[in-house]
Amino acid sequence: MPGYDLDLFVIGAGSGGIACARRAASYGARVAVAEEGRIGGTCVNRGCVPKKLLVYAAQFRDAFEDAAGFGWRPALPAFEWADLVANKDREIDRLNGIYRDMLAKAGVEYLAARATLVDGHTVGLGNERRTARHVLIATGGRPWRPDGPGVAATLVSDDALALDEFPRRLLVVGGGYIAVEFAGIFAGLGAEVALVVRGEAPLTGFDHDIRAALAEEMAKRGIAIHVRTSTRRVNLDGRSFAVETADGRSLAADQVLFATGRVPNTRGLGLEEAGVSLAGNGAVAVDDGWRTSLPSVFAIGDCTDRRNLTPVAIAEGRALAETLFNANPTRVDYDLVPTAVFSQPPIATVGLTEARARERLGEVDVYMSRFRPMKHALSGRDERTLMKLVVERAGGRVVGCHMLGADAPEIVQGLAVALTAGATKRDFDATVGIHPTAAEEFVLMREPVRPAAGAPEAEAAR
Predict the structure, then answer these.
(1) Among residues 5, 225, 404, 422, which one has the fewest Cβ atoms lying within 10 Å of its Cβ?
(2) Which residues are catalytic?
């Protein structure tokens, strides 16, 4: 066997790459990681972490307003965008240091440099070359926006996290996770927000009842949702924008955010030149073991464009390290991956939507509860929680769990364990609830709200 400098070279120091590198090093592998940007990747620097910090900031407006119903007499404090951004940046700097320390303690060599693939065992770092028995591509994704008149002058999500000036009027184009979350953040911080969505409602692919309920809650918060349309032209007049939509409207804004998706971050890495097959959008083609068309080169995470979630990338990285360096062939189960949208209020879901369950399983029972949370009996806020279970008629297995409401991500994370373990509706019914909580409603729903066969008309609106 040829002698290599390393056992594993990882291109990309995001969550997946770091997880694989650390696990591989723990088994004695010689590992190096190269990153041209900040360590931690999108999640730590431009995604999950800073976005969640801004979500917390937006929620304080509700807390101040709700306090009056509980006997407090607060005056709504002034909000300072610059302070929030500075504090957020300080926390990201702290996390960057932690990630560097973790790699050092694990014995992983960290290279702050752009790496390209030369061949199946060789990586280029400027004028330097390093060889490795295995190479891992873990370069994540990047924001994408369509071509069109004036679009280049607009923001993407990376920009929205570091604006110099808070926009009083924000137009968000898109209907996915990022669009919904940023619409909620800026509306909560006091901006006038509009959302342009091509479909019938935000969050295509989520359960239709959850989508409809979220649209209602967003509208209550003053977010104007323009559905079944798209942008035709973006006009910049001085410091303001006028966005022309396909249905003939003109929407004014101080800033326009295109949250129209992400694409694999694989440009300029030398992958195709080295023999790695890519899809049309740049996604790295891999088999079930994350192996590319070059047997010694692997890829995980968002650059493969499969399940683009940070915990999935981490699971893939650890599984690959187990397979390559611990003689423990490991796979990741993608069927029951829970996910959350940190909207206002938040969404969490695991398993099948009602529509997909009917397509795959035929007869299903649907249990649903919508109610005003106990907190808002005194706060007076007009906000409702929605909980939904989708149950396979044959055998009673719970195949889908969906929630819109406060603490939904925390609640559904626990229920994801139950679904992964194969829990049935009978198991849910036999579980004693914790009272008084919203979560107990998941074990108190007794009567299905829809028959086992025949989807409602709303199912068609995806």
Answers:
(1) 422
(2) 435
